[in-house]
Amino acid sequence: MASVFWPCDVARSGFYYGWDHPALCVAGVLEVEEDSHADALLQRVARSTEAQVLIKICGTPRILGRCIFSSFARSSYPQPDVEMFCGPSRTCSAAYIYYHRRDENSLRFYALGSNGPRLSDLQDEVLRSSLKHDFLHTASLRSVSNTGQILVNQWNSAKSLEQFIEHEQRAQATVIQEPNARFKETSKFTVINKKFQCTIDGIESSTNLFWRVASFVFVYSREFSIVVQQIESRVRKLRRLLRGVQPVPNGDVRLKSSQYIEFYNTLWIILNDLIIGIALRQFLRQDRQAFLHLFKLAFEDKAVHKIRQILLWLDSWPAGLKLNTELSRFYSHSFMGLIALWNRGFQSVIPLIPMLLSALELGSGFGATMALAMVCDLVCVFMTHVQLCYLVSVTVYGHLLRLAASLWNLFRGRRHNVLRNRTDPWDYDVDQLLLGTILFTLVAYLFPTVLVYYILFATMRVSTILVYASLETMLAFMNYFPLFALMLRVKDPQRSPSDIYMRVEPTKGGNGVDVSVESHPLPLAVIFSQYVELWKRLAKHYHPFRLAWHVMSGRVLDTIPRTYIHSTT
Amino acid sequence: MQQTRPLLDCHPELSVIEWPSFREYRVENWQLARDGSGNVVRGATSWGWIDLCLPVVISFIWPRFRGSTILCAFVVLVVGFTMYCRCVQVLHESVLVFPAYGIQLETHRGYPLLKPLFVSRRFIHASLLEDFVINEGLRRWNVRYYLAAVHGSSTDKIALDVAFENILPHFPVLLEVYQGVQELMFYNHTDNMHTPI
């Protein structure tokens, strides 16, 4: 006995119509006297333009039979007595599986599961090959057929079909009215969007020197400055917002829902950002003096004087280590000179710090993300002296390390073969060997001095990078938090479905069960999938082992490149 | 509604229930003792001796820890955790077969004497179901069998879902379920051969 999919909310007698392929799915009931009337009505609807979209994804609906509801059988789900026109005519009650008909404007729908497989590519290949070699398993892979998707489309469009039929029944001449007042607004927004797009295209293609220089500066500074990146991404989001106000043509409720969610998610994030930014601004304003004092104290004391103290300490036999006096003195004096230079520059900038603070306040008025981006940039700018000293010391250390490695090879009588990328035994001349050995001794004895200074600046650089990385992470998380999707999942799980399941409940009568089709809400892993991806990339770049390896091998530590993060989002 | 136990002598925990629109293969979380004595070994117990030890232990340590809030909180946490563990035991798992529509793998959890509190369900539509197989798994020196539904997803990757994942019944039970599902889902009666529907 085949099961019939019956809508939960239909309990009228009449002729029922729906689809019979791939399964018997009833869309609604027509209360007319003759089945020829019902047939004619359905034909008229099937010819109209809106219904064409529906028919393309679901198939052609037909009159399936007649149903009668007995007035005394009261249960939570309708139990009709049906007489089917197709196949063997029988009046016995078939088995029903109930589904919910959803109005298209309510944005609730069923979805057949984008549950990402938890297996990897390799296991997917293994399973595929085992299926191919199974001689009992005939025919091609079933995933090709999409009967499941057609069935889900039918469930999603049943209510719309009924609405079309009701309109036809009332014999209205006009077509379904357009989505009302929003249409006027959308035209205004599209005009703004178009104007914006035109200006951007104009700037990009102009030969005017000013615009060319400006765009060059913009592109160049995008690599360095987080504030510029933040401005750019915010502008892009706003443009997407403007574009997203347009209505989507009927028929695809999934696309409409995802556009709706994306639109409101962006809107909510921006608004939340602004609110938090304004609160932050108030906070900064109130405690201005304290911040100024804190800043001056923290910076000048720690970042400048402390380094100088440490450099002096390193110069005079730190912890009993006997470093090479001349080299150590040269190193410490040159670094102190660099820092003093920078300090002088900083002293001249000190009177401008209040202006900086008010710029920060202004920035936080545009959103907490802007304030965070400015803090990021400030950290970068104020640690420039450490960065410079680090670059110098890492270059020296790196060169020394590579020199030592190459001389060590010479010591053993080998040479690095660049063509084959390996070390081969090689005969050196005596004078080469002598020179090499002398150099090797020199390098070996100078190495601890260079190492000590390198460790100092590498530690400082690592801590700066970690602070910078955490700020950047926070910025990325604040920019892309799926707030709306989470809220929707809590408030109305049927609007973000991930999978269907059959719920089996015992009937109130006692024996027998009711089966209904429900949907699972989107799992959290899917909602946060972008985050997980972002986190993976950040963790890969700032992994402690990777950082430690870079430090030891004398490679330059850098912050994560912009394209690496933003290619997901 | 018709309930039968096909393997009554060795594996009475399997029951097959025929409903109008589907067939349910239910495996309950108990089994007969393997030594042939006929004793029932329960997988989900309603109480154990540790549940009696817990109040005794708490009554001994309570005077010592009355003052500090952290330890009180810790004790509450432990008690809460024990109660939670008791309430999420697997009561029974089933495979529901909807002919021509798909199969659904279910796990019912709860407290053993009451109705199930939590149910986790996984529906695989017939168009996505590639095959329903018994796989041989090797764990240390043992060979264990498990039922798996091989299905595709919308991302065009094939994945496995294990039926009776927590109970993992023995082979005769698996064979019975396997034959039932193959007959209902993959057997085309008109052609008298196994094809995808």
Helical segment count of chain A: 19
Q: Report, as a whole number of angstroms, the end-to-end distance of chain A.
A: 50 Å
Number of E-type strands of chain A = 10
Number-wise, the strands of chain B total 13
What spatial order of strands do you see in the largest sheet of chain B?
1-2-3-6-7-8
Detailed description of the structure:
The complex is a heterodimer of chains A (569) and B (197). Residues 178-184 of chain A have low confidence and may be disordered. The relative contact order of chain A is 0.09. Chain A contains 19 helices and ten strands. Chain A has helices at residues 35-47, 49-58, 121-132, 147-169, 182-205, 209-224, 226-243, 253-286, 288-315, 325-349, 353-365, 368-382, 384-412, 430-479, 483-491, 524-527, 529-541, 544-553, 562-566; strands spanning 3-7, 14-19, 25-30, 62-68, 81-84, 95-99, 414-417, 422-425, 497-506, 513-521. Chain A folds into two domains: 2-170, no CATH class; 282-485 and 529-566, no CATH class. In chain B, strand 12 and strand 13 form a beta hairpin. In chain B, the strands form four sheets. Chain B has a six-stranded antiparallel β-sheet. The model of chain B has no long low-confidence stretch (mean pLDDT 87). Chain B is elongated and about 70 Å long. The interface between A and B is large, with 45 and 35 residues.
